[in-house]
Amino acid sequence: MRSPVWVVWVVLAWSIGWAPLEMDCAWPQQARSVVGRLMLSEIEGAEDTNRAAMWEAFGRCPGGSGAAACRRREQQRFEAHWERQKRAIEDKYRKMLSEFEERCQASAA
Q1: 109 in any annotated domain
Q2: 30 with 24: CB under 8 angstroms?
Q3: What is the number of domains present in the chain?
Q4: Runs of H (alpha helix) within the chain
Q5: Residue-range definition of the domain harbouring residue 89
Q6: Which of 25, 31, 52, 95 could bridge 104 with an S-S bond, Cβ 3.0-4.6 Å?
Q7: pLDDT in tens, 29-68
């Protein structure tokens, strides 16, 4: 069963991917603010999804003496995956801002 947060994240990610983000060079601070909020929203949604998947993986660990080691391995695996995913999201928005600033500088010249 998917959580409501997961559904919101998917809808947000889809809308960001398909709707062009209007960023006006006349209002650069507002554009940066919108991009920052979108990035944080995407990070939070991805983190929630990753955390839920990690807890599901914990539930598949065997009981008894092997449980703690299994949970530790799963946690390390999910943390490594999360760090890569978060870095990719941050890179995506850094690139978006960089391209915006380059476009604004080119239009001002």
Answers
A1: yes
A2: yes
A3: 1
A4: 4-18, 28-59, 67-108
A5: 38-57+68-109
A6: 25
A7: 888 899 999 999 999 999 999 999 999 999 999 988 889 9
